Amino acid sequence: MRYPSIVHHGAVTGVTGSCHQLQMDHEHALLIDCGLFQGAETSPEGRANAANLAIDFSLDGIRALVATHVHIDHVGRIPYLLAAGFKGPILCSEPSAKLLPIVLEDAFKLGFSRDQKQVERYLKLIEQRIVALPYKQWFSLISAPQLNARIRLQRAGHILGSAYIEVDLHYPESGEKKRIVFSGDLGAPHAPILPAPKAPYKADVLVIESTYGDRLHEDRRSRRARLEKVLEHALSNQGTVLIPAFSIGRTQELLYELEDII
């Protein structure tokens, strides 16, 4: 087999269950995200789904997990990953390191147990595994005669703590060098509370999300005007507006927009 190679364990035929394995050589691999499947979506082989979240791939050689951000479809299977025997570190940005235990507490309670002692033991394990990385700084993963590997997190502008991942690989025996970039989820420019993502300087291989790749979003000014119109209509009718939104990311943006409208 020629290295590096990439195997997708989720978010291939759908948009949830993000999980990608970078096989760097015959004995070293890196996992990028390990997310929950939602709705009718499944793993590529069809063995894992929303009702069966057990890890359905080998963990041999996987040295670390990198979490691009803490939305459940990117980190929700981490309890199952640990249950399957994963012993490596969980690498993420510094803000994500604060949020991840909160999100995974919910995932554990929903999928495993609400027993408080078990929850506390699990959260202690999670906190021990987390390695918080600053943005824009290289972190060495592997330093071996046949492979040098390092990663760097860059701001993705999606939610607080989100990052895209740059992986630099160097094979000393052949002199070959490769840079692989995993986008995670990318935010749009001009977000009110997050800096816009900047494109990577280079990439030999790019793995990029395409959730909204087939549509154009309206601009933020038009969206805010539409929200204001809905609110005014509800107020004039003495009605109620229900807005379903992710608690991390969308809710903060909505609160910001509402404050500006008021």
Give a verbal description of the structure.
- The protein is an alpha/beta fold and 262 residues long.
- It is 27% helix and 24% strand.
- The protein has six helices and eleven strands.
- The strands form two sheets. It has a six-stranded mixed β-sheet. Strands 7-8-9-10-11 form a five-stranded mixed β-sheet, with no helix packed on it.
- The longest helix is centred in the middle third of the chain and has 18 residues, at 94-111.
- The model has no long low-confidence stretch (mean pLDDT 90).
- This is MBL fold metallo-hydrolase.
- Residues 16-233 form the Metallo-beta-lactamase domain.
- Pfam families: Lactamase_B (PF00753).
- GO terms for molecular function: RNA endonuclease activity.
The major beta sheet can be summarized as: 6 strands, mixed
Helix content: 25-40%
Please state the structural category: alpha/beta
Query: From N to C, what is the helix and strand string?
Result: EEEEHHEHHEEEEEEHH
Let me know the number of strands: 11
Output the keywords.
262 residues; alpha/beta; 6-stranded mixed sheet; 5-stranded mixed sheet; 6 helices; 27% helix; globular
